[in-house]
Amino acid sequence: MGSIENLTQNLASRFPMNTLEPEEFRRQGHLMIDFLADYYGKVENYPVRSQVSPGYLGEILPESAPYNPESLETILQDVQTKIIPGITHWQSPNFFAYFPSSGSTAGFLGEMLSTGFNVVGFNWMGSPAATELENIVTDWFGKMLQLPKSFLFSGGGGGVLQGTTCEAILCTLVAARDKNLRQHGMDNIGKLVVYCSDQTHAAMQKAAKIAGMNPKNFRAIETSKSSNFQLSPKRLESAILYDVQNGLIPLYLCATVGTTSSTAVDPLTSLTEVAKKYEVWVHVDAAFAGSACICPEFRQYLDGVENADSFSLNAHKWFLTTLDCCCLWVKNPSALIKSLSTNPEYLRNNASETNKVVDYKDWQIMLSRRFRALKLWFVLRSYGVGQLREFIRGHVGMAEYFEGLVAMDKRFEVVVPRVFSMVCFRIKPSAIIGKNDENEVNEINRKLLESVNESGRIYVSHTVLGGVYVIRFAIGGTLTDINHVSEAWKVVQDHAGALIVDTFMSK
């Protein structure tokens, strides 16, 4: 017995390090919170888009890891001097590019708690609370959106928190693929056809590649300015009929509520009517704009979702829930489970065998998963439906204000009608003397975008709509207020004025 005790003591002396000692964790945790609070307090002062050159970090960090421990204070000093210069500040109130990645105290604290518990909730047994809270908050959120009961656990469907829309689309595409092949035969995979518009996010094409779709059977249907870049039901049906006549099998349609380029809204009611005639799985991607539909005045944009098979939005974009948190609802969970489930012996347990619990490992690509439901639960409870609606309405109001500023300056034009909180605008051809060619006008607007972003004062991004280079001004940052929007417009005006003068002088 003594020898065992001696052996234990010897081993303990050899492995003395405790990397999660509560009091040291408390001390360092306070340092980290203070650091981040200071960061948020001064984030407005940093250049919004990082100004570093490629490879900058490799030039200033050591070539190998340290042999001896370094203090948190030392590490945070390097974060301040070496890492922050290489960050594009998505939480800056002057960030208007892409779509927002909105954060909040509640979202951050929920994420912190999730990280602190560090559970791996691949099945119900892995952490019952992780699964059951996810069941509850996805039903809560679904009810806020007035989703049909068939999308909720209480109605036979259900929700799952994925990482991103890319995962949601891939999972539903694989479910649709396997369901179809079980009916038509596995050797028909080369005949399956996927449909979307030319405005659909590139995640759709990527998912089709991963899912083994024939690249020749990917249909990105052309849209036009005359219809505000919505997907036309007539063009969809024409494409489907052509494929059917040529012996192909229509499989999957991705319709969008709030496209990335212009926040166009596809006509869900008409599109789903066409799709159902041909037994096509319909997924509705509302990654950015879906959050707005908790407001009664925007709910109309989901009309027709009752005829879809799946629906997703990113709570980490415009719903105060830190990255990553994509909410996916499906009417038929068994379609996902049949495609994505694995049941090795080492994961068998009595709860799963009863079929009375959800094992989320069978609803997603990965096996492991984080306790994402905590941060969404914190957001829903901390702000409530009323305050969340006002948060969204505030950004829409600021976008309306910005749209008005653009309209008042005769050098600019709004390219497509604003729907939510993003304005698509450009310097119009008449403002550029002697530059009537569309390619030349596009180049002037490209130079304006780059000039504005190089200033570091604001950050905006672009797109091309019907051959027209467009500057996208997306409002949705947690810290953004009307003064930031007003100042951003002044930055755009100043840079545009200088550019127009330079263009005239160079003639």
Automatic annotation (TrEMBL):
GO terms for biological process: amino acid metabolic process; carboxylic acid metabolic process. It comes from the Eukaryota. The modification N6-(pyridoxal phosphate)lysine is found at K317. SUPFAM superfamilies: PLP-dependent transferases. Pfam families: Pyridoxal_deC. PANTHER family: GROUP II PYRIDOXAL-5-PHOSPHATE DECARBOXYLASE, TYROSINE DECARBOXYLASE. This is Tyrosine decarboxylase. The keyword DNA-binding does not apply. Belongs to the group II decarboxylase family. One of its GO terms (cellular component) is cytoplasm. The keyword Lyase applies.
